[in-house]
Design a protein that fits this description.
Its cofactor is Mg(2+). Its EC number is 4.1.1.39. This is Ribulose bisphosphate carboxylase. By secondary structure, the chain is of the alpha/beta class. It has 16 helices and 13 strands. The strands form 2 sheets. It has an 8-stranded parallel beta barrel with strand order 5-6-7-8-9-11-12-13, surrounded by 8 helices. About 40% of the residues lie in helices and about 20% in strands. It has 2 domains: about 100 residues, Alpha-Beta Plaits (2-Layer Sandwich), CATH 3.30.70.150; about 280 residues, TIM Barrel (Alpha-Beta Barrel). Helix 4 runs parallel beside helix 5, helix 4 packs parallel to helix 14 and helix 14 packs across helix 16. Bound molecules: 2-carboxyarabinitol-1,5-diphosphate and magnesium ion. Magnesium ion binds next to loops.
Length: about 400
Amino acid sequence: MEDVTATYYFRPRADTTPEAAAQAIVEEETTGTWTDITTTTEYVRRLDGEVLSLEASGKGFVTRVRYPAEIFEAGNIPQYLSVVAGNLFGLARLEAVRLIDVDFPESLVPFRGPKFGMEGVRRLIGTTERPHVGTIIKPKVGLNPKDTAGVAYHAAVGGVDLIKDDETLTDQTFCRLDERLSAVMERLDEAKEQTGRQVLYAVNISARADEIVERAEHAIDLGANMVMIDVITCGFTALQALAEAQSVRVPIHVHRTMHAAITRNPEHGIAMRPIARIVRMLGGDQLHTGTVSGKMSHDVDELRGDNAALTEPYFGLKPTFPVASGGLHPGKVAAELTNLGTNIVLQAGGGIHGHPDGTEAGARAMRQAVDAFMEGVSADEYAKDHYELKRALERWGNR
Ligand SMILES: O=C(O)[C@@](O)(COP(=O)(O)O)[C@H](O)[C@H](O)COP(=O)(O)O
Ligand SMILES: [Mg+2]
């Protein structure tokens, strides 16, 4: 049976050699502890982990370690994480340690993955190549259901493929989920009458783990054609429950709010790559992974690798649609697509609702920026006979 390999960056404490530090990681996460014990037996030895490689990297070291597959309970992601991303982060002998990536053998990927995935979402929208354009209802919170639906309507008529709730909006008193969802779906039907185009609305159903499937089923009964989950705050298995529920037959948009507390520090924590792999395994159809030019911190090389982890062949699982979001506007579209390719969802909140002529014009400008790129024309050139894009570039510039 093939084993698990995990890659860590670490910086040992001054009194600890890199070899001892790497060994400490392996022992802590397999059969060891801080001292030799009298209770161990020969047959336990087969579960010992192993340091496969160790090399200097920047101010620290990178090590690849082997964890025997037998240590893992197949299909139990919380247990997987307790090994590859467990106590090691607290070891005092390590000044810093970061899980960079993890490779699970097929025997430990008994998951079904996305129900729709990138291709399935494209089929719903009717696209094959072009990037999808999405928007987040802004302001994040505060609008009542009627006004939320109005914003959604204008974004849909303007040309977006996806509209989503913000990560902080769920079922608060000022905008109850039921009322909001019904109002938005009604206005989207109206927009579809006009444009003939299908638009997905990712209603945020984030809730306690034992209620989330019920909340999704309820939303689907009310007409939802997509649901959204804050996967870090809800927990990975909440996503698993949603994706494995036969009753949840709509795509799942995965937001990663709170991720940066874990992923941002290049020396300590968990990189986005293992999180991306787990979200794909557990059934996320779309996942935020970051931008190359937006408002959130980003590492372009890491980001490209994260998106590849979502889309490359992986034990027959469908690809998850990467989402680039956060501080985007039409002037940034070319940079995103040049660096990340066109199999991507480009999402803009402020970059659409902040357009000088309003939401509909903002959505048109984003679509025009995408069309310009797909036609190999610069945004500045394209703006000469596309008014909404011209106005957006005047407001936010071309980068
Ligand atoms: O609240 C926000 O900031 C956003 O709605 C973007 O709005 P704007 O388009 O107005 O910036 C998203 O939550 C971020 O993209 C999340 O970050 P990430 O995608 O990196 O997880
Ligand atoms: Mg948001």
